[in-house]
Amino acid sequence: EWSPQDFYANTHVPDPSTVANLGDCHLPFVLFPFQARTVAWMLKREGVQYAGGRLADVAQPTSPLFHRAVDALGTPCYISDVLSQICITPPLFDMRGGILAEEMGLGKTVELISLIRAHAQPPNMLDNGHLTSCGATLIVVPSHILHQWTNELKAHDPGLRVFTYTGVQKWGDREPREMAEYDVVITTYNTISREVHFTQELPTRVLRRAPVNKPMRSPLVEVSWWRVCLDEAQMVESGVSGAAKVAQQIPRVNSWVVSGTPIQKDARDLIGLLPFLQSAHSMKTWKKISRPTYKRLVAQIALRHTKELVRDEIALPPQTRVVVTLPFSPVDQQNYNDHAEVMARECQLEGESTDSEKMRVWLRRLRQACLHPQLIDGTMVRKRNPGQLLGVDQVLQSMVDQNEASIRSEQRALILSRVRQGHVLAYAKSVPDRAPQALRRYQEALKSAQELVKECRDELAAVAGAGVSSEADGEVSEDELDKAAKGPEAEALRRRAGARRELRSLLEVEHVCLFFVATAYFQLKTEKEALAAGESPTSELETLETAYYDRAQAVRTEILRGSRARVNNVMTKVKASFSPEIPIVPELPDVDGIENRRIVDAFFELRDLLNAQADALQEIRQKVVEILLQPLVDNDVTETTGEEYESSTKTQDDLYVYELWHRALIAQRQATLIGQRNTLVNNEVKDAARMAKDGTGPNPELMRKAAERLAALQPNDQASLRGVVTEARSLITQLEWKRDGGAARAAAELALTEQLLKELQDITSHQMKHFGELEKAHDLFRTATNVRLDYYRQLQGISDTVAPYKESMDDKLDKVALVDLERKRAAAEAQLATLYGKRRYLRHLQAETDVDCGICQSELTDGVISVCGHQFCRECAGQWFARSRRCPMCKARIKKRDLRPVSHNQPRELQVKEVAPSGITTAAVGPVGISAATLREIQAVELPRTYSTKIDAIARHILWLRQHDPGAKSVVFSQFTPFLDLLGMAFASLGIEFTSIKNKNGTSMIDEFLANPAVEAFLLPAQSNASGLNLVVATHVFLCEPLINPAIEMQAIARVHRIGQRRATTVYTYLIADSVEEAVYEVAVGRRREHV
């Protein structure tokens, strides 16, 4: 298989003993010897070298794509597996440029500037066909280092003429040849990726008419560049991105790829860059390359120095890499264990095969669990607390709440499985005493349900406080939660709402049990065999049946009380707001004239239409209100039939048609009054009418009638009352002109028309005022409809829970179903036992009390907790339960699965390893690189609030640096950007000044970190593509988690360990002991060795 070493082991390394000859370049800065050798090599790759103080051409080398062979006749030949060619003479290699793959921090920018200064375009360079020859060097860089590049160019060679290209839109209609006025043109990958559609060749066909506007073309492809350089080229190594496509199309003489990590995964990553270096060959061609050809190619076109190779020349301060292994805090350990258990269950780790996709998802979740519980994808802790950082106490409370919810869920499942066992027996004809047996199981389930309901009522009373009802109604509204979202009452309101939801859920279970107990008594009453055997008299059974049905009714009433109250509240509003009278449009006084006769006639037509609409609105409103004010089914005197939701369907269909009819009439009245058409409503009516014509949709017959009547009341498209007013205004203006011109009749006509206008305005104002009330009434109708529908939906849901188990009785007992239910019941009991043990442990963590072993009476640090709540040392428990299966404290029977690991006040000592750059450990476990005293000091730093094991450790370390290394700056790196957001919140609360690449407004904050001495930390996400960033002001790098991709890790470290660094640097990799991070780190070490 291909590996990164196929590239790194074959790159060209100039002989250190060689003295580079750069002639008289007049460089404004001094190069290190290795940099001078690199520049000399780059000149050769561009076909020149210095000889006698002047540039001279270098003979082209032979192509590495060909290897020597002998044909069948014994004649020497040259074969290329990449190009599928064979030659008699050795072909030359015409690729000008190459790959500058210096390790990060060795001054690739300086080397490139030296090349620009040392090898300018010859003055006699001819234009490339229709393209203007441009002697500038085009440099494409990541956006975040654009400013850094311009500063470097200005600092190292102020004489260079530099232009920053920001896109074809801002370039405008300037001539592309203006690019030739500069020495360097710099742009970004984001900019050129947006120009992918402005680089295509224009069609050459002859059009009948010349285009009016010439299509816009990017100036980057309108000139032939002397040199094009892709800095941090790993960003386009795929070769298929928009930026890569544009880069390949830019005309150029010399092509350079600059990257400290051109290989991210394996050596074939380079294939995506080769089409840029040798544009004559496509990606498909390069993919055929063999390993021997690849090695020859890399040796010829790529150069790489490492810091290790040139350390004697650059005297770079030493860098220490330290791996800090942290033990989980008890809360984080419990959270991690919970997710690990779920992962093992979902991924079937104990089975023969596992789902690799699920494993990848869970690997990510477990890695997130090592950082902060709130970070884990898909958890309720994350969903319920967006945008805020939870402390350890809040995380622990969330874990307690989640465990309680799991307990309630299993309890409900256990009760309902008992009910279903009763169903299986009740429906078995072959069981002679099926009714008594079913009744016994229903009663057992009822007893358990009532106990849980009592517990839940007590919890609700405790949460809600004194004087607050412990019933299931009184639901907390969304408005209340929104108002208290940031206030001190927010948590109390949410807990109260949660407790009421839990009570309502348990009441539904109690209702099921009560209903089927009553049903069992009904079955007993109707079975003559049971009476013959000496059972209770029929009257007594009937009394019991009625009593349990009444109790079920009472529970159902409590469940629905909140919904019923909302319906009644809206119904009261409907009654109060309903006004049967809709004002009609009155007659006009005698204002007829000759000139305004047409306007008066138009008004009369509109008046008749508006009054007809008013009559129709009054009629339909009455229908809607009658339906909305109908009493609810299942009140205290109405017995449920199990078909409540279906029985309301007919009424609901009628209500839908009447509401649409009402809304359409309002839309028609709006169009008649002001001329504004409601296209949405009109289209909805058309669709409903079309469905009704086909016999589908709600109440087709009524809908057809509505469509017919609506068509008769539809106003003319051009007619409206506002239009009539406008015509009257226009006529008044005309009459004023005529009056002023001396026309005698015009004055009389003007007086009549002015009076007409005043009447029209009063009528319009009055109608529009009432029109707003119509819209408000319709909104209220819609709200009333929704709350009634929600009530019936809840009622139907309750009815579904007591639906018949089967359509008909079973001839024989369904033993398979009975066994399956028993198995599920046992599984639920086992799961409950585990959850009860977890509950006791979590409550103990909340109490933070010391615990002694129940056997040896010594203080407990690492042990187990039983389902009965007693705790023992792990060693004591192992010896005791090897001989006995009963708890030594309470004698309860204990199974092995009932024991859960716990830890209390366990010494949390950090483990430290110092590692070499290759990732090989150079020292044993112990305080290496950081002394034991320093470790104790860091651990002793007090925090006002704790968040998670990782966040606390990093925060303590940076606060310790503030005290012992004032002014020190740190770079904190993580591949989980949301974790850096949480870390930033923690830093803000702890008073640690920090910045990131960009703030919330998208403004770059790099200069703030470099220049502001108060800023202590720079949060650097892996997704920011931080390659090339110069952060030598920092001396500490914190890797929040092990990084599997070594290229990303090396890029992160190289932000501080580079030429220009004057102080020793330290890299801290934080790991969690006994977690997935340790395995990830071992994988990362193996991959890092392949890169070094």
From TrEMBL:
Residues 89-280 form the Helicase ATP-binding domain. Gene3D superfamilies: P-loop containing nucleotide triphosphate hydrolases, Tandem AAA-ATPase domain, Zinc/RING finger domain, C3HC4 (zinc finger). GO terms for molecular function: ATP binding; hydrolase activity; ubiquitin protein ligase activity; zinc ion binding. One of its GO terms (biological process) is protein polyubiquitination. The keyword Nucleotide-binding applies. GO terms for cellular component: nucleus. Residues 853-891 form the RING-type domain. It comes from the Eukaryota. Residues 472-481 have a biased composition (Acidic residues). This is RING-type domain-containing protein.
